[in-house]
TrEMBL record:
<keyword id="KW-0175">Coiled coil</keyword>
<keyword id="KW-0445">Lipid transport</keyword>
<keyword id="KW-0813">Transport</keyword>
<keyword id="KW-0446">Lipid-binding</keyword>
<dbReference type="Pfam" id="PF01237">
    <property type="entry name" value="Oxysterol_BP"/>
</dbReference>
<comment type="similarity">
    <text>Belongs to the OSBP family.</text>
</comment>
<feature type="coiled-coil region">
    <location>
        <begin position="130"/>
        <end position="157"/>
    </location>
</feature>
<feature type="compositionally biased region" description="Polar residues">
    <location>
        <begin position="166"/>
        <end position="176"/>
    </location>
</feature>
<feature type="region of interest" description="Disordered">
    <location>
        <begin position="158"/>
        <end position="189"/>
    </location>
</feature>
<protein>
    <recommendedName>
        <fullName>Oxysterol-binding protein</fullName>
    </recommendedName>
</protein>
<dbReference type="InterPro" id="IPR000648">
    <property type="entry name" value="Oxysterol-bd"/>
</dbReference>
<dbReference type="InterPro" id="IPR037239">
    <property type="entry name" value="OSBP_sf"/>
</dbReference>
<dbReference type="InterPro" id="IPR018494">
    <property type="entry name" value="Oxysterol-bd_CS"/>
</dbReference>
<feature type="region of interest" description="Disordered">
    <location>
        <begin position="564"/>
        <end position="588"/>
    </location>
</feature>
């Protein structure tokens, strides 16, 4: 009977039990961390169930005590009987064990009661602490948003203050020669500025008279003059675009008008690596990072022109203009390109009209890294491995491309190396999004030791400089300045040949600048106008519109075949988000399989993936110029395309 009763009580206790699970969640998602009334009611139900269990244990204890006492009485009665000595000793041992069992059961019940009281006490403390943290977080978010709005209002008030020029013009006297921006300028009341942290230029430029005028005045030139080879720099950017042999598309479907609160997603991501944050396609543009990298070739004609330069410093001017031109498409492009899948490729086979072949491959996923190789039939090759490092800082987003860019001209053997500058997206919380390029770029010709120092000036509240200004100096192998470069990264670049240089008088703060006397500037590069209706097509350039156009014969890993990107381009954003999640889960499963295959003999998980995954068309080598490990094209892609043999390509889509 006692056993039946115990079984019934245990069954009742099991039926009333509620499983409690604690889940550790990554903060990279958009999970709502506030405690809802449902969570509180569930907690109360759990405490109630624990109380019921304690009552059941108390009932069991009473039954054990009752039947234990009866058992001890029976044993005592047996001890009073005349039984053999051995049997009496055994009865005493049984009686002692029964007593110990009753004491143990009482201790268990007391411990359970103490645990329940402790759980009730601490649960109330935890609830109060959690509620306090939630209130503090909400208050902090509201404060940050209010500060951002006040900051924006102060900026508008400052720019509209009387006596402040809205569009100051500049001459070539401060290392820049640009026409002032007209009414088509994109700056408006939502544009944000910030202080420049150092002087805008370290030199002053003065335009000297033409050669004939100086001779008429009896003056002496005293330095370098324009030579016949300088004609290579004339009309560099005015290369006519012939009709393409293959008709390319000139438009894509208009961007849908979907509203989405960026701050609601980004507020949980401050300080985190952007590539590790799951983002919906609403923040993307229908191009992958590999295609954005290929866009750098839009002004390839600058390098085609540089092939014919007999002077290495003149060639450096064109290379510098090419490096700046790659930023011209970013001025309106605040959307994020798709992160390529590991092993994803993108080819640009345009030998007929552009005279080049380009191949990109995603060689690492964390950190995201892409290898790129370009061959031009005009006599130059370009290669790079770019790793994108990005951080969200609350009000702005910093994007730092890491890695060296190599450019080599076959005829002369001139080998140029440089690195990209930092891109910053501002007004993440409130206001109009805008992008800026800041930092210094050093271009080095490793054969001749010529150098070019380019400076991308940031926006400043109080500076009178032209917006998005770029200035620089080209020096020969002896360190003597030969050319002054000037312009803006979103419009044009010019160069002026230096006639002579001299130090200026010290300024009030004791700093001294170099004064360069130059000949009139020549235009190196000018941005192509955007296609009609570009504002509804993600501000794509003429080349960008063709990059995702379907082509036959490409590798099965090509970005053009990525389904979520294609769905987004067609305007099906909901389907694109679903497909994006499927592809990301497929990639995670592939990574798990690679790690399991290399579970023994490897270090950390990142080292495991680095050791296991091998790029298909590129291989790691030590760069002799930078001393860094970089992915270099090992060949075979274009031969595989010729044979249409893609059996070695992974199934990533």
């Amino acid at each position: 009977m006692c056993l039946n009763l115990m079984g019934h009580l245990c069954l009742r206790s099991y039926q009333h039990s509620v499983p409690i699970s604690i889940t550790w969640q990554d903060d990279s998602g958009d999970d709502d961390e506030t405690t809802s009334p449902t969570d509180k009611s569930e907690l109360h139900c759990t405490i109630k169930d624990l109380s019921l269990k304690l009552d059941d244990l108390g009932t069991c204890n009473d039954l054990i005590a009752k039947h234990g006492a009866a058992l001890q009485r029976s044993l005592s009665e047996l001890e009073g009987l005349k039984i053999p000595y051995e049997s009496s000793e055994k009865l005493k041992a049984v009686n002692e064990r029964a007593t110990l069992f009753r004491i143990t059961s009482n201790a268990m019940i007391n411990a359970c009661r103490d645990f329940l009281e402790l759980a009730e006490t601490h649960s109330r403390k935890w609830q109060r602490a959690l509620q306090y943290e939630q209130e503090q977080r909400i208050h902090l978010e509201e404060t940050i948003e209010q500060l951002a709005k006040q900051h924006n209002s102060l900026e508008r008030a400052f720019r509209s203050a009387p006596g402040r020029a809205s569009n100051p013009t500049k001459s070539f006297s401060e290392g820049s020669f640009l026409t002032p921006k007209g009414e088509d300028s994109e700056e408006d009341e939502d544009t944000e500025y910030f202080d420049a942290m150092e002087d805008s230029t370290s030199f002053i430029t003065v335009i000297t008279e033409a050669k004939e005028d100086r001779k008429a005045e009896g003056g002496t030139t005293g330095s370098v003059e324009w030579t016949s080879t300088d004609n290579v720099l004339d009309n560099t950017s005015l290369v006519p675009k012939g009709p393409p042999k293959v008709k390319r598309r000139v438009r894509i479907p208009d961007k849908p008008n979907y509203s989405l609160n960026l701050w609601s997603i980004m507020k949980n991501c401050i300080g985190r690596e952007l590539s590790k944050i799951p983002m919906p396609v609403n923040f993307n543009e229908p191009l992958s990072m590999l295609q954005r990298l290929t866009e750098d070739l839009e002004y390839h004609h600058l390098l085609d022109k540089a092939v014919h330069c007999t002077s290495s410093v003149e060639q450096m001017c064109l290379v510098a203009a090419f490096s700046v031109s790659s930023y011209s498409t970013t001025v309106h492009r605040i959307a994020k390109p798709f992160n390529p899948m590991l092993g994803e490729t993108f080819e640009l086979d345009r030998l007929d009209d552009m005279g080049l072949r380009s191949l990109c491959e995603q060689v690492s996923h964390h950190p995201p890294s892409a290898a790129h190789h370009v061959f031009s039939k005009h006599g130059w090759s370009l290669w790079q491995e770019i790793t994108i490092s990005s951080k969200f800082r609350g009000k702005y987003l910093s994007i730092m491309p890491l890695g060296a860019i190599h450019l080599e001209f076959q005829a002369s053997g001139n080998h140029y190396v440089w690195r990209k500058s930092t891109s910053t997206v501002h007004n993440i919380i409130v206001g109009k999004l805008w992008i800026d390029q800041t930092g210094d770029i050093e271009i080095v010709n490793h054969k001749t030791k010529d150098q070019c120092q380019l400076k991308f000036l940031p926006y400043s509240y109080f500076s009178k400089e032209v917006h998005r200004k770029v200035s620089g100096v080209v020096s020969d192998s002896q360190g003597k300045a030969q050319y002054v470069l000037s312009g803006s990264w979103d419009e044009q670049m010019e160069c002026a040949k230096i006639v002579q240089s001299s130090p200026s008088s010290p300024s009030s703060d004791g700093k001294q600048k170099t004064v360069y006397q130059t000949l009139p500037a020549k235009l190196l590069w000018k941005k192509y106008p955007l296609p009609e209706n570009a504002e509804n097509m993600y501000y794509f350039s003429e080349l960008a519109l063709t990059l995702n156009e379907h082509e036959e014969g490409v590798a099965p890993t090509d970005s053009r075949l990525r389904p979520d990107q294609r769905l987004m381009e067609k305007g099906h954003w909901d389907e694109a988000n679903t497909e994006k999640q499927r592809l990301e889960e497929k990639q995670r499963a592939s990574r798990r399989r690679r790690l399991e295959a290399c579970a023994r003999g490897c270090g950390s998980e990142d080292e495991k993936e680095t050791d296991v995954y091998m790029p298909l068309w590129f291989e790691k080598r030590v760069d002799p110029h930078t001393g860094e490990m970089a992915c270099i094209y090992k060949g075979g892609y274009w031969e595989a395309k010729e044979r249409q043999d893609w059996h070695m390509c992974p199934n990533i889509f």
